[in-house]
Amino acid sequence: MPFTTHKFGPLNCQIYDNLPADQSPDVIAIVSHGFGAPGDDLVPLGPEILRNQPQLSERVQFIFPAAPLSLLEMGMPGGRAWWMLDVAELNAAIASGTIRDQRDKTPEGLVEAGQQLQEFVIAVQQESGLPFSQIVLSGFSQGSMVSTEVAFQLPQPPAALVIWSGTLLCEQRWGSLADQSPRFPVQQSHGTQDPILPYTGAIWLKEMLEQHDFTVDFSEFVGPHTIPDVAIEKFRNLLSDLTGSL
């Protein structure tokens, strides 16, 4: 498979595309993994989205950054994190079915992780020569949260923000950043049976974005903490729309 490893700014990544050697992509999708996953956890999404899509396969490049923190000392070899979590607190909330209201919290390490991912995205933009309007930011779980943090703060707005199983953090901070940000389209999906980041938190995030005049294409599905087929299909359609408009 056409995978390569690279480093942009402070972060390592894997790149997937089917582009001819002398051809640059028309659209880049940056896809950030969740807490505890290895850096290449979401790489299979690239082939899945491009399969049987010739009009995309020679125009779209996928870049999968690895989060900066190793979880080896937590007994998770290969696992990585954008910022550290209190796993005991998380497990207790899951066991009790408690909804963790994180709207008033700015997790320690979120801002720093956002700065690193932002440096990464800017380095991708500079090396590729594409405008930010042809770069999609996407992520799963913690990866979607750090992508949200960055999307509000880029020099120009991204083509879109794609949030899979995310939640609303630091509402006051994000609201202030959203006020100052140019608007961009958002895709969001969340399972109604998600025990890790309950559905309610996703609705809070959707409502916050809409209150700040962002258009949110929201996909609810019956299921747990995952990326459903409907979200993959909408992501594929988004990339098709972007390449078709160029």
UniProtKB/TrEMBL annotation:
Residues 28-239 form the Phospholipase/carboxylesterase/thioesterase domain. SUPFAM superfamilies: alpha/beta-Hydrolases. It comes from Gimesia algae. One of its GO terms (molecular function) is hydrolase activity. Belongs to the AB hydrolase superfamily. AB hydrolase 2 family. This is Putative hydrolase. It holds the Pfam family Abhydrolase_2. InterPro entries: AB_hydrolase_fold (IPR029058), LYPA1-2/EST-like (IPR050565), PLipase/COase/thioEstase (IPR003140). Keywords: Hydrolase.
